[in-house]
């Protein structure tokens, strides 16, 4: 399982994106940790690095001139392929790095110690690194210090994830979801990449609460979130944006796939039996509204409003359905 | 400040006021800080530097923890 996760690059990139810390200003907690690495290990350079699809991005760095480098020339892209620290005593003698511009030119890296930063779900999203301009053998006690500091970085990243998660369902909070939607919208504006949004509301949810109690309602919401998480791709985002209202963000997904995905979510929930305790069970359905990015969508709010309007139509049309009702209709609205 | 007492092997108390996911996170963080203190000592780092480092790390973690608690408290309830 562990080795499989090391090879699951799409899942790993999704984990990087969930952290939502790429391209933000330097933050004090991580600046403090790179300062500690530099001081305690006596190295001129230290970084907290995240490995994105095509680049390594420094959440915090000391002694390096830039905020990011291409991934292809990075040391950390090798570090995240393993669970153990990567130690390079002399980069000029290591065929993986001898020709790297980071070694042959500024910042003239000669030795490197990197410890993977692991998320609670097991993905290596980056590394905590100590870097020297001289060949160096990092002692076992120095590596142990770096490992422990990397664990503390991972602790803080985990708290950020918790802060973005809804306590009841583990879905993203509305705020966390909106941040992801903003990114997707920016990606569309910059690169014209497709993207789709599905809003999902539990049908007659008030009756569940009234007839079976709030604990049963909680259980239904939790199970719906679990079902959606099972069906969605690692790169999708799932948020609870209201009491019984959820939203799914599907990057790189156009009208046809979005419509198929919405139908898949609807059918999965319709076919599920919800165990509400005391030997009781119930069935629940959802209504869904789908909206894809297109020229008429001028903001994230407008995108959500489109999906919400279709959701409202699904409710008015009898519930337990997706609107629009065909791929063609969805594409027309785009 | 328990960890500045420099006994990394001391048992970590439960935090009954915290939600379960934060309890686990706090416990792990304390274990990691304890391990860090041990490794710093093993490397011969000055006790004053260790204390200052741990204090700084606790402050940073405390800020993140506050954010997580705030998010949990403000989350949607089913009512």
Secondary structure topology:
The complex is a heterodimer of chains A (334) and B (79).
Chain A: H1 2-7, H2 9-19, H3 28-41, E1 45-51, E2 55-62, E3 68-70, H4 76-79, E4 86-88, H5 101-104, E5 111-118, E6 124-132, H6 140-163, H7 174-191, E7 195-202, H8 205-212, H9 214-231, E8 237-240, E9 245-251, H10 255-270, E10 274-277, E11 280-282, E12 286-292, H11 300-316, E13 322-323, H12 327-333
Parallel strand pairs in A: 12-13
Antiparallel strand pairs in A: 1-2, 1-6, 2-3, 4-5, 5-6, 7-9, 7-12, 8-9, 10-11
Helix pairs in contact in A: 3-6, 8-9, 9-10, 10-12
Chain B: H1 20-42, H2 47-74
Helix pairs in contact in B: 1-2
Summarize the structure.
The complex is a heterodimer of chains A (334) and B (79). Chain A is 44% helix and 22% strand.
Question: Would you give an account of this structure?
Answer:
The complex is a heterodimer of chains A (334) and B (79). With 334 residues, chain A is α+β, with helices and mostly antiparallel strands. Chain A folds into two domains: 2-163, Beta-Lactamase; 174-333, Alpha-Beta Plaits. Chain A has twelve helices and 13 strands. Chain A has helices at residues 2-7, 9-19, 28-41, 76-79, 101-104, 140-163, 174-191, 205-212, 214-231, 255-270, 300-316, 327-333; strands at 45-51, 55-62, 68-70, 86-88, 111-118, 124-132, 195-202, 237-240, 245-251, 274-277, 280-282, 286-292, 322-323. In chain A, the strands form three sheets. In chain A, strands 3-2-1-6-5-4 form a six-stranded antiparallel β-sheet. Chain B has 79 residues and is mostly helical. Chain B has a domain at 45-74. Chain B is 65% helix and 0% strand. Chain B contains two helices and no strands. Chain B has helices at residues 20-42, 47-74. In chain B, helix 1 runs antiparallel to helix 2. Chain B is elongated. The termini of chain B are far apart. At the A-B interface, helix 3, helix 6 and helix 9 of A face helix 1 and helix 2 of B.
């Amino acid at each position: 399982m562990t080795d499989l996760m090391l090879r699951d690059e799409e899942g790993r990139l999704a984990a990087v994106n969930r952290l939502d810390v790429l391209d933000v200003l330097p933050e004090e907690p991580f600046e403090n940790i790179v300062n500690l690495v530099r001081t305690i290990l006596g190295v001129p350079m230290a970084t907290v690095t995240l490995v994105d699809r095509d680049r390594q991005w420094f959440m915090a760095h000391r002694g390096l001139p830039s905020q990011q480098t291409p991934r292809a020339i990075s040391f950390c892209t090798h570090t995240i392929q393993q669970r153990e620290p990567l130690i390079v005593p002399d980069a000029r003698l290591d065929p993986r790095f001898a020709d790297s511009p980071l070694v042959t030119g500024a910042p003239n890296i000669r030795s490197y110690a990197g410890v993977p930063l692991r998320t609670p779900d097991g993905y290596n999203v980056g590394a905590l690194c100590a870097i020297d301009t001289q060949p160096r053998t990092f002692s076992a006690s120095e590596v142990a210090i770096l490992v422990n500091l990397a664990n503390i970085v991972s602790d803080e990243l985990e708290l950020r994830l918790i802060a973005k998660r809804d306590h009841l369902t583990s879905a993203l909070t509305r705020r966390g979801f909106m941040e992801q939607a903003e990114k997707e919208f920016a990606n569309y504006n910059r690169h014209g990449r497709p993207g789709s949004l599905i809003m999902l509301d539990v049908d007659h949810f008030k009756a569940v609460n009234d007839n079976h109690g709030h604990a049963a309602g909680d259980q239904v919401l939790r199970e719906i979130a679990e079902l959606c998480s099972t069906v969605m791709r690692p790169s999708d985002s799932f948020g609870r944006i209201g009491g019984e209202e959820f939203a799914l963000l599907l990057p790189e997904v156009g009208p046809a796939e979005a419509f198929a995905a919405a139908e898949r979510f609807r059918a999965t929930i319709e076919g599920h039996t919800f165990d509400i305790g005391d030997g009781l069970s119930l069935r629940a359905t959802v209504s869904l509204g789908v909206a894809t990015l297109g020229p008429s969508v001028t903001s994230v709010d407008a995108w959500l409003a489109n999906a919400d309007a279709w959701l409202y139509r699904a409710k008015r049309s009898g519930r337990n359905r997706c609107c629009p009702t065909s791929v063609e209709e969805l594409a027309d609205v785009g | 400040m328990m960890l500045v007492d420099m006994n990394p092997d001391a048992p970590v108390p439960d935090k009954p006021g915290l939600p379960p996911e934060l309890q686990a996170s706090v416990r792990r963080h304390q274990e990691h800080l304890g391990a860090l203190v041990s490794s710093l000592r093993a490397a011969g780092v000055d006790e004053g530097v260790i204390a200052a480092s741990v204090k700084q790390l606790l402050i940073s973690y405390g800020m993140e923890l506050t954010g997580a608690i705030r998010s949990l408290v403000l989350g949607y309830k089913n009512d």
